[in-house]
Fold this sequence. Notes:
The protein has 5 helices and 5 strands; from the N terminus they run E-H-E-H-E-H-E-H-E-H. The protein is of the alpha/beta class.
Amino acid sequence: VQVLLISGSLRDESSNSATLRTVASLAPAGVTAVVYPGLGFLPHFNPDLDGELVPAEVDELRAEIHAADAVLFCIPEYASALPGSFKNLLEWCVGDADPRSLYEKPVGWINIAPLGRAGDAHASLRIVLGYLHANLVEGVIAAIPIGKVHRDDSGAIVDPGVREQLLACLTALVDAVQS
Length: 179
Ligand SMILES: Cc1cc2nc3c(=O)[nH]c(=O)nc-3n(C[C@H](O)[C@H](O)[C@H](O)COP(=O)(O)O)c2cc1C
């Protein structure tokens, strides 16, 4: 089973990206989990560019989504909304008519902000992924607050309890693919 991990942050020291790198490192045998690296390279969404030929970066994004059996998101909130660069990525997904697009694909997300924060962004994520007709796996829509205390100097999550919860999310997403 292949899982694509998409962070909504462009920051080098992003806690969302570091969380997904930890998820990737926890993948059990038989599961490949890879972090999508291209968020910062996508052109601004423009319907005029979304025809039979799309920009190479968009082609690569769509190919990574098509190759994946499921997608796990981890995104911050900016100004009570989705980060613009990440919403841009989702807009490029709308016109993807390939049968392996996000349409009916199992997806989940983890809100790592302190409890009660970033709710607007994640409510919006639910609406947009619903618009895309993704298969929202409720068991993998999780709030796992992650702070400095759970990380080492590289940002990797070392707290055993948090690592267990992250692995449980990945496993539940894989189960959704297999069921
Ligand atoms: C411009 C800006 C706006 C932000 N707005 C919000 C917000 O509305 N709500 C919130 O909970 N956090 C907000 N934050 C805090 C970020 O979501 C938080 O720093 C997050 O950890 C960044 O994720 P990252 O470490 O993956 O880059 C904002 C941060 C920035 C830089």
